[in-house]
Amino acid sequence: MKKIPFLFLLCYLISFAIQAQIPTKEWDKLGQEIAKALNAHDQSVDQYFDKTAFLNRFILQNPRNKDIKQFNRKIRHEWRSFSLGRTLASQPIQYKYEYIRIHEDSSLVIRQWHEESGVNYFLFKLQYINGQWIAMDVYVLLTGQFLSETMKNTIYLPTAIRLIQGGEESRRGMSNAEIYIEATYLLRKQEYQQAYTKISGIPLDERLKGHQILKLNLSYLLESNEKILKTIEEYQKLFPNDPSFEFIMLDKYVLEETYEKALTAVQVIEDFIGEDDYLYYQKGVIYEQLEDFKEAEVQIRKAIAKRPNEALYYWELLSILEWQEDYKGCVKTLKQMQKVLPHTKEALVETVRQFYYVFPYEKEFERWAK
Fold first, then answer.
1. Which of 91, 140, 189, 303 has the fewest other C-beta atoms within 10 Å?
2. Is 172 helix (H, G, I), strand (E, B) or coil?
3. DSSP reduced 3-state for 61
4. What is the C-alpha separation between 185 and 195, in angstroms, rounded?
5. What are 312-350's pLDDT values in tens digits?
6. How far apart are the C-alpha atoms of 366 and 352, rounded to whole Å?
7. Mean pLDDT score of the chain, rounded to an integer?
8. How many CA atoms lie within 13 A of 94 on its CB side?
9. Are 55 and 79 in contact (CB under 8 A)?
């Protein structure tokens, strides 16, 4: 009789261990499929996202208030037309998406980046629903929160508060929600300055993270370093311990040329996201600015080793080797580019002559370019 409880315990532990194992191959395949769908810049990613599970993460469950119940019914009805794919497709088509890895909290890390606009990371939170693994929320590193949190704090709760209670505080909350919605509408119309002015109308001490992130995005779209730095400083005051803080501060450090702080920021991002070739590239660029060309070369070569078909990394390596007067290394890099990239020798020669200042006049380049 004493052996039976032990047997049950053993079976339970074995069962728990099996359930706890991450289905690595299945999740990796799913991550690659999500990235491929995102790169299509259409609604094809919707098949990998359960919008009902997402909705249930930010609306009040089984509310007693009849007005909230009616509000929930209205949202559920309107939610039928929601499309994550359509939302992400509104991003510039130049953005590229790459699957990076499985994150420790049952999420798939997808990198969004563009050579000029920089980088962002999406963590697709997974859940096993109706016999399949599917995303049910997305954590956005640039905002430091899940999309469900943004929806809840900027739109849903202000309305719910107004329905539950009256008074000046609830009216102000609803007003801020209306400002946010109007600024978002202006953003979609590409009226960036009007949207920036609109969202700036929310008093600093009343701004939620979603409000401040929208203002930051608008400052980038306006290409105003003054607005970018001001908005980042406001973010620092409002959310000094936020997990996305160093990620946002990276641009500030680079603009202010405080490169040691920039390196620390990249390391914080890497500690959270995990190993990524683009972060190696970022480190290489920063070390180049610090004139530590040896370490810059090390970091860029790491980036190339992880993603050997990315032209951006080779051109950065060429610049670093030029600084070190390693012209043989420059030629070797060009030969490597010929092998792995769809670049003709003529195109490579033209680019070097157009964008590099010393190497094109060295004998090593002249011999190779013939």
1. 189
2. helix
3. coil
4. 8
5. 999 999 999 999 999 999 999 999 999 999 999 999 999
6. 11
7. 88
8. 6
9. yes
